[in-house]
């Protein structure tokens, strides 16, 4: 079995261990080991013995008495999930950033929901990828292509990979649909960083939900089910439902920026149909109002119905019949108009092609 590169001591930890060895009362190797092992990292007690016998880390000086005292005072220095605030900092911040993204989106008083979610979720995913790469021993720092030197920020820190670079690395464990979802959100983030947006929540909500589910699944697959976010947030309650007529009216009055529509359509035009339909790319849930025939079901806010069941197939048939319409690209519209007897029709600079193909508008044609 290959050695896990994550199961190694940091330089500052070696310094603390040396100070513990030299400071009374005497602690044996197993006593010292207890301070440095945790669920996300397993250290063999032989590493402590090697330090004591001066077989390893001979160039690292012992920590000062003050540094040792500060370490012992803060120990165990873990969060509520048992993650070490220093050693597991990337994982802790990844989880916290995604929770902030979801909480911000679910805030009923917020009007900047999707924008805040996307920016914060990209940070969460970046930290999660960095934590994964650190765990498997991948150097996620940018390097000069000619010299191989680590690139630095203008303040002298190592320059780490951005999320898009992480997704392109061979060690990225995500599948193509999950990557496509994140690349889409990155495209939208580029737009919202530099231009104001108007009510894009409905346009991309399926992508945001998929992003949440993908993050939780990746988090548990990489680090363990005990660190999942399933129990952190419950179902968001609301005060009133929205009838279809109300929703159609809201969507009709939505003034979506042309640059976002264009970015949305341009990105999806290059995706395979299988990826677009994959719930890891865009997760859609249909809410169907219905009466119940038992007392137990009356207490359930949500009931999950298998799509391959008779009831699930009937619901899908009704939904598709009610809202699904054929989507046209700009070139399709031009060809159709010419076949209909308008050979001179070529479109115009005012034509906004994305509006002819966006799924959001397809339901109201």
What does this structure look like?
The protein is mostly helical and 365 residues long. The protein is built from 15 helices and no strands. Helix 5 packs antiparallel against helix 6, helix 6 crosses helix 8 and helix 8 packs across helix 9. The protein is elongated and about 95 Å long. The C terminus is likely disordered.
Annotate the secondary structure layout:
Elements: H1 11-22, H2 29-33, H3 45-52, H4 65-74, H5 89-106, H6 113-136, H7 163-168, H8 176-194, H9 201-223, H10 244-253, H11 258-269, H12 273-277, H13 310-323, H14 330-339, H15 359-362
Helix pairs in contact: 5-6, 6-8, 6-9, 8-9, 8-11
Over all CA atoms, what is the radius of gyration?
27 Å
Helix-strand string: HHHHHHHHHHHHHHH
Q: What would the average pLDDT be, to the nearest integer? A: 79
Describe the sheet with the most strands: none
Query: What gross morphology would you assign?
Result: elongated
**What is the helix fraction of residues, given as a range?**
40-55%
Number of strands: 0
The end-to-end distance, rounded to whole angstroms, is 59 Å
Q: Which stretches are low in confidence, meaning pLDDT under 50 for 5 or more residues running?
A: 249-255, 349-365
Count of runs of 4 or more consecutive helical residues: 15
Strand fraction equals: under 5%
Structural class: mainly alpha
């Amino acid at each position: 079995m290959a050695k896990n590169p994550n199961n190694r001591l940091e330089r500052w930890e070696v310094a603390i261990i040396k100070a513990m060895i030299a400071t009374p009362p005497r602690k044996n190797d197993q006593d010292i080991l207890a301070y440095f092992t945790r669920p996300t990292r397993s250290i063999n007690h032989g590493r402590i013995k090697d330090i004591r016998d001066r077989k390893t880390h001979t160039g690292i000086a012992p920590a000062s008495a003050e540094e040792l005292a500060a370490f012992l005072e803060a120990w165990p220095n873990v969060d509520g999930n048992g993650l070490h605030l220093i050693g597991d900092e990337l994982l802790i911040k990844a989880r916290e950033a995604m929770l902030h993204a979801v909480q911000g989106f679910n805030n009923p008083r917020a009007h900047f929901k999707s924008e805040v979610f996307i920016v914060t979720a990209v940070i969460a995913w970046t930290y999660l990828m960095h934590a994964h790469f650190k765990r498997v021993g991948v150097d996620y720092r940018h390097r000069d292509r000619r010299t191989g030197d680590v690139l630095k920020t203008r303040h002298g820190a190592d320059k780490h990979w951005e999320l898009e670079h992480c997704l392109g690395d061979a060690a990225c464990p995500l599948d193509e649909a999950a990557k496509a979802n994140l690349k889409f959100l990155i495209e939208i983030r580029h737009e919202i960083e530099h231009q104001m947006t108007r009510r894009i929540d409905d346009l991309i909500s399926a992508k945001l939900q998929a992003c949440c589910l993908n993050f939780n699944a990746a988090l548990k697959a990489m680090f363990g089910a005990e660190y999942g976010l399933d129990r952190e947030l419950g179902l968001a309650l609301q005060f009133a439902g929205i009838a279809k007529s109300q929703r159609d009216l809201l969507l009709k009055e939505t003034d979506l920026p042309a640059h976002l529509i264009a970015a949305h359509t341009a990105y999806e035009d290059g995706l395979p149909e299988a990826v677009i339909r994959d719930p890891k790319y865009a997760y859609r849930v249909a809410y169907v109002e219905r009466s119940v025939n038992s007392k137990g079901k009356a207490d359930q806010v949500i009931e999950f119905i298998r799509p391959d069941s008779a009831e699930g197939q009937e619901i899908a048939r009704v939904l598709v019949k009610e809202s699904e319409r054929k989507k046209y690209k700009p070139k399709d519209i031009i060809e159709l108009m010419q076949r209909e007897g308008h050979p001179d029709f070529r479109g115009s600079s005012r034509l906004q092609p994305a509006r002819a193909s966006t799924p959001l508008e397809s339901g109201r044609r």
